[in-house]
TrEMBL record:
Keyword field contains RNA-binding: no
Keywords: DNA-binding
PROSITE patterns: HTH_CROC1 (PS50943)
Pfam families, sorted: HTH_3
This protein's name: Transcriptional regulator
Signal peptide limits: none
Domain HTH cro/C1-type: 13-67
Entry's Gene Ontology molecular function annotations: DNA binding
């Protein structure tokens, strides 16, 4: 059975995209994904692969940690 640690990833893709005055479609084309992928990522319903996270950060010329933030959860089942 897969253990749920409660970890999550938040992102600032929307903020960076809006500051760059880009549509979701334009960003999607630049990083090689669908507009739907950008949409669900901005809503927090999709955690990108590590490769995609780096592509997005590289596109905006920032460190991946500037856009994506790892939030460690608590393991409730720990003995």
């Amino acid at each position: 059975m897969k253990k749920d640690f409660g970890d999550s990833i938040s992102n600032k893709v929307y903020e960076y995209r809006v500051l760059a005055r880009m549509s979701q479609q334009e960003l999607a084309e630049k990083v090689g994904v669908s507009k739907q992928t950008i949409f669900v990522m901005e809503k927090g319903n999709y955690v990108p692969t590590l490769l995609l996270a780096f592509r997005i950060a590289d596109f905006f010329n920032v460190d991946v940690n500037d856009i994506f933030t790892y939030m460690k959860g608590n393991d409730q089942n720990e003995n």
